[in-house]
Amino acid sequence: MRARRRIATYVVAAIIIQSLCCTVTHAGRHAFDVGEKLPEFSGTTVDGQTFTYKHNQSNPLMVVFLSPGHERSSRAVKDINDILSQLTNAERLQTVFATDKSNGFDFPSIQKRLPGNIHVLLDSEYKLWGKFGIIAAPTVVISDTNDNVLCIKAGHGYDFAPVVQAYLNQALGLTQKKNPQEAGRVKTVANDTTAARIKRHLQMAKLLEQKGRLESAIAEIQKARELDPNSIEAAMELGELFCRAGRNEEASSITESLKVTKRVDKARLLLISGWAKRQMGDLDTAEKLLLEASKIDPKSARALFELGKVYQSKQEVDKAMKSYHKALTILFNE
Amino acid sequence: MLDRIYKLAVLLICVLITTGLAVEKPTTQQKTCVTEECHADYGKKAHVHGPVGLGDCTSCHKPLSHEEHTFQFDRKGRDLCEYCHLEQTAKKVVHEPLKTGDCMQCHDPHSSDNKFLIPEKTVAALCATCHKVTEGLAFLHGPTAVGECTVCHTSHSSDHADLLVADQAELCFSCHAIMQDELKEFDYIHEPVKNDCIGCHDPHGAANSKMVKNLAPFLCYLCHKDIQKIAENSTYQHSVVGDIEGCNQCHTPHASTVKFLLKKDAKSICLTCHDKPHDLGQDKVLPAFTDELEGKEFLHGPVAENDCSGCHVTHGSEYFRLLAKEYPPQFYAPFSKENYELCFSCHSENLVLTKETSDLTDFRNGDLNLHYLHVNKERRGRTCRSCHATHASNKPKHIRESVPYGVWSLPVGFTKTQTGGNCAPGCHLPKDYDRKDPVDYSAWSTE
Q: Is residue A235 classed as helix, strand or coil in its secondary structure?
């Protein structure tokens, strides 16, 4: 029974592997794949020197195959020049330009920036091209400090620069936000998402509030809430604005309907409730709520200020002064 | 007659009442002008000018003659207000009424029911008396829509053009903060996004959604005249480019992580339309690109790199199928370099110019370059498409399964080996080639 199950597992695994293999597509042929060792090679540079690439030198390498007169090769050289000019630790990178004709690119200006690191090989017999299995220009091959191939980028498409840049960063061990495999993934500004629109309404509400236009500010936040009725941030902002505008009942109604989990949100909710209660004259409840808010978020200057006002109304001058002082200390970062 | 007497009586009573109630102008110096009897309204409105509130009318009005109750302004023109409100005109750009000292165009100097002593209920209504910027607009900018002109403009003076409260780009980003944060992640940013949002958007509103000044492509053509020229004058035009909002099918207007502000990778963009056949007219149909790729194992380089622009241009072309350069559409063609410009934009022309090579291609028998042999002929050179499928195939090197020859479809019968391969096409008898152990072709004719 167990043997049958094992056989069935193997069969299923084999089917999955086969189906995966069948979906793999191939662009052409190269003499190596990503992850394999880059072959050692040597060649003659345009100024008659011999360049030799040997393993175990602990230097990353970029080999760029180019054809002068090809527009895409020219654009690739320009991009690579830009990338190298901004690259951290570029002096650790060896760059080889393998070209089938001797002229056509402004290599000297690149070499001037990184003397000793840029090598231009004249490969009119296509020896290195054949060795690497390169059939199109431009093609960029990047290997890491362990001589393993990280990337083979053929052509000069829309994603050439970000992909080459990301793999060079990886080769040099530089930290980067993007995974190099995702460097070519297209992302655009998402300024028309609901989150972005909510943020704009909240931002404008803040501006209006600063200008003393409380009713307009409230209208803006209400627009944000229409976009996302569950937005905690919008609800909190609205609650505070209702308090500022003296619309205490509405502020209280928001706090009653809101369910928050974060401590900082809880503190803000208590502040709004306490603030509204103070303005409604329920000083004892306000004091209780504001004390709790201050306990959860001791950095809330507004909670301390409101508490001060509660004490002031209760004629508890010392407590009021102490609370105001604490609020000011936080505000002035003392 | 009686009626006439009645009218005269009424008139007489009115005259008596008005003269009786009328307050005589004081003829001596008064402590204040705002009393229950005189100028009472000035102090009764919701917002009162400071000096009026203090009863200090002489801050602005200088008595000429107490006996005649005549006054003149204490200072002339804008100096009258600037004497106290100096900071309002201190900046480079000054609002026109202030320049001419006509502060009262926007403010009541005594009192008003509205904040800032303005005569209208809102700032927007006040601005609209001169600046009719929103009339007939279907889409309004948020601040304009809610009448908050002063979110962007200052009323008196500014260091920025158009009385803006900050530098233009900085100002837009002050609300569109999420956009500014996001932009930091992008290497490719549309130039106007950096500092000229109003290049594309009308900051007050527009007839178009997103407040764009015009729809694409017309808006885009304002700057991208080169593209307009290609799109409108090319022999082969890409229909989507001329469509309303066509540009936005492929490009994003603000920023992208890749060149040309593409919305997605190039292939995905193309497949948004080319996933189905397109009728080209005259009984011609452009097949669905997806059908050509489906289940195919070997892709042409640009297809594998998701970069259709490796061979096609997107806005318009002089070559069929929007190809970037010359590429013979037929099976046979006399060889000339110019005929193969498209292929030679990536592949070395030496591929078909060199009779013998040991490295340039794997399609060789020993060192005999079989590309040269097939293509480089004065009369019946085989074009690239004779053997290679341009997009994808299930044969290595994206070799075709079969070749269209008139109405026939001749199988190619290509098999790859470790050191060469063989073909069994309809074009000639089956032939092998081997790079290490060359096949003897001496028995074959040169053609």
A: helix
Number of domains in chain B: 3
Q: How far apart are CA B109 and CA B196, in angstroms?
A: 39
Of B403, B395, B397, residue with least CA distance to B426: B403
For residue A80, pLDDT over 90 is answered with yes
- pLDDT per position as a tens digit, A280-297: 999 999 999 999 999 999
* Residue carrying structure tokens 């236009």: A213
Q: How far apart are the first and last CA of chain A?
A: 75
Quote the strand ranges of B236-389, DSSP E: 236-237, 255-256, 278-281, 284-286, 298-299, 316-317, 364-365, 368-369
- Do the Cβ atoms of B357 and A126 come within 8 Å? yes
Q: How many CB atoms lie within 10 A of CB A211?
A: 14
Contact between B407 and B413 under an 8 Å Cβ cutoff? The reply is: no
In 3D, which of B115, B181, B112, B99 has the Cα closest to residue B148? B115
Q: What is the pLDDT of residue A174?
A: 92
Considering only CB atoms, A70 lies closest to which of B146, B345, B397, namely B345
Please determine, looking at this structure, whether the domain spanning A191-257 carries the CATH number 3.40.50.10190.
Answer: no
Among the partner residues B143, B262, B301, nearest to A158 by beta-carbon distance: B262
- Inter-chain Cβ pairs, chain A and chain B, closer than 8 A: 169
User: In angstroms, what separates the C-alpha of B324 from chain A's closest C-alpha?
Assistant: 12
Residue B1: C-alpha distances to residues A311, B9, B11, B14, B126 (Å) = 80, 13, 16, 20, 54
Q: Tell whether ipTM is more than 0.90.
A: no
**Structure tokens given for B251:** 């490009």
What SS3 class is residue A29? Answer: coil
Architecture of the A260-334 domain: Alpha Horseshoe (1.25)
Which H or E run includes A143? strand A139-143
B107 and B42 both lie in a single domain: yes
